[in-house]
Amino acid sequence: MSHILSCFSNSFGPLGVWVAAENLIKTGLTHLELALRGHNLGGLVIPEEVVVTEKADDATAKKFVEHLSKHEAGVSGCNVGGANILTDEGVTITCNRLRFAAKWFGVSICVTGAGQPKTDEEWSVIAANLHKIGQVAADCGITLALETHKGPTQNAAAMLKTLNDVNHPAVKLNFDTGNIAYYNEDMTPMGELKKVAPLVVNVHVKDNRGRLEDWYFPALGEGGAVDFTDIRETLDSVGYSGAYTVELEGIGGEPEPGLEERIHRLRKSYDHLKKCGY
User: Which domain does 26 fall in, by range?
Assistant: First the structure.
């Protein structure tokens, strides 16, 4: 089974999406999952000014689309998360990002988070808001893929409860192979994936050492805790046809790797996936 091998634009770190598009061809990967926001978590900081967000004017968005085409960089999806979806403002921001993604990139998948509720009451609000966001996604021809993050989607049991509570056909899962061990003790990505595989519409392929809250996300194959062949075979068995998106968030405490090292790690990751039958 042939799959799109994609690259999360955050793998280029503070260099941003324009540089990612220019250099994607050197990695072997053919598509980008575009972040539509900046990032500041753990060892990864990406200023918003190096990302094309939903606030971009038409001229900027058009120029970036032309830039992607010039460098033969496809777009497998967009990452629209980051806003506080417990609030009306956060819902509006997320929906605006969905509309922007549909208008300019024509994507069918957008990845977002499921929030960080502290109480059952907060979760009730977020679940209702995710249902609303899911309807906007559906209206745009998009399926929303909930990222593997702490709380509502940190393991298979939480994911299943969340999808049941949200109860919208356009809201499914983005499965992150590196985040299972990061957020859970005594769980493996392979074990959790088998419980939710039919509900997965996007995958972040990420490696680590299998340790709780250990910011160690090297080139694929160098962490040792993720069996990427098993991941592929599990998803092949349920007819998964979505992208496999390489996400390299680096190693905590290391100096900024720079462009050449980032390209090198992505190329090693591509080669490892090919060895695993992708």
Answer: 5-275
